Amino acid sequence: MASRGRKRKAEAALAAAAEKREKPAGGQEGGAEGPSVVIEHCTSRVYGRNAAALSQALRLQAPELAVKVNPARPRRGSFEVTLLRADGSSAELWTGLKKGPPRKLKFPEPHVVLEELKKYLS
């Protein structure tokens, strides 16, 4: 079993690596100018795999949006998708906090989130 210091350092390294991967995908826009989508997920592998699939679908369907995954330390057991508008307001597109068991109910199908996104952007 790893000591507390090692585990936290490993988590910090993973977060830094994820942040580096997200920067090129955001492009030249910056995200502060236009709307962006934030995906917050627990650090479990299953949550990460579902977040990666959802972020890829969002980037393909709405390339003008910046997609950020875990910009801050995520809450335990969370899977939430939020739209951050240019005026500073936010709209929740999906929350899996109260869903489950089974665990698969916590994760949305990409088309469900895209429909919600289109509703808020129209």
TrEMBL record:
Record flagged with keyword Transcription: no
Record bears the keyword Transmembrane: no
Record key words, sorted: Acetylation, Redox-active center
SUPFAM superfamilies given in the database record: Thioredoxin-like
Pfam families for the chain: Rdx (PF10262)
Region listing for Disordered, in residue ranges: 1-35
Domain of life: Eukaryota
Cellular component annotations (GO), alphabetically ordered: Golgi apparatus
Family according to the record: Belongs to the SelWTH family.
Function: May be involved in a redox-related process.
Protein name per the record: Selenoprotein H
Species in which this protein is naturally found: Moschus moschiferus (Siberian musk deer)
Lineage of producing organism: Eukaryota, Metazoa, Chordata, Craniata, Vertebrata
